[in-house]
Amino acid sequence: QVQLVQSGAEVKKPGASVKVSCKASGYTFTGYYMHWVRQAPGQGLEWMAWINPNDGDTGYAQEFQGRVTMTRDTSITTAYMELSRLRSDDTAVYYCARAGSITSLPGALDIWGQGTMVIVSS
Amino acid sequence: ENVLTQSPGTLSLSPGERATLSCRASQSVDSIYLAWYQQKPGQAPRLLIYGASSRATGIPDRFSGSGSGTDFTLTISRLEPEDFALYYCQQYNTSPRTFGQGTKLEIK
User: Fold this and answer.
1) Residue A83: helix, strand or coil by DSSP?
2) Interface contact A112, partner B, CB < 8 A
C-alpha cells in the first residue's frame, strides 16, 4: 500500500541542525511532489516546503528560507528535510506528505507520514 | 500570503446532528485548490475533500464541501462519534500553501 514512513524522534540543542527522513513506498516516488508541514504542540498546521523528487526542484515558505534544505535520494525513494539553526520554537511534529502528480495541476496532500517529533531544548 | 480564517473555533454538537464549518480566505482561491483535512489526537491529518467539493478515497458521503472565491464550507450531514476531531482547510493555489487555524468539533 501507499505509505510514507518517517524517521524517529529527535532532541536537539538550540543552534544545531536536524535532518528528518521520509521513506516512500507503494507508488512511483519520482512521480509526485513531496511537501513538509509542521505542527507545534497544541497548535495548527504550518506549511513549510515542497520538493519535486524527479528533478530536485524545491520551494519554501519565506519564513524558512535559508534555514531549511529539502533533498531526496531516488535510489531509496526517500525525501529529507533538514532544518538548521534550531530555536526552541522549532519544537514541533514534522510531517512529510505526498501531493499531486508532477505532471498535473497542484494537488492536495493525500498521503501523510506518521510525523517526527523534534524537540529543541538546552 | 493568503490567510485562511476558520469559524467557529470550536463547535459543540451531538451525534446525529449536522455540522457546518466555514473557511474564509483573504484572497480569492480557485476552488480546485481548496482542501479540507481531519486530524484526531496523536494522528497525522487525513485528506477529506479536495478541489473544494471532491471527496478523497474512502471518505464517507456524509462529508461534503462547497464554496467558491473566498468562502468555503465543509458540511457533515449526520455526525458519527468518530467525526469529533479537528478540521483544517488549506489552499494550494499559491505559495505559501496556507492552512486555516482549525475548527475543533467536540461532543456536546
Assistant:
1) strand
2) yes
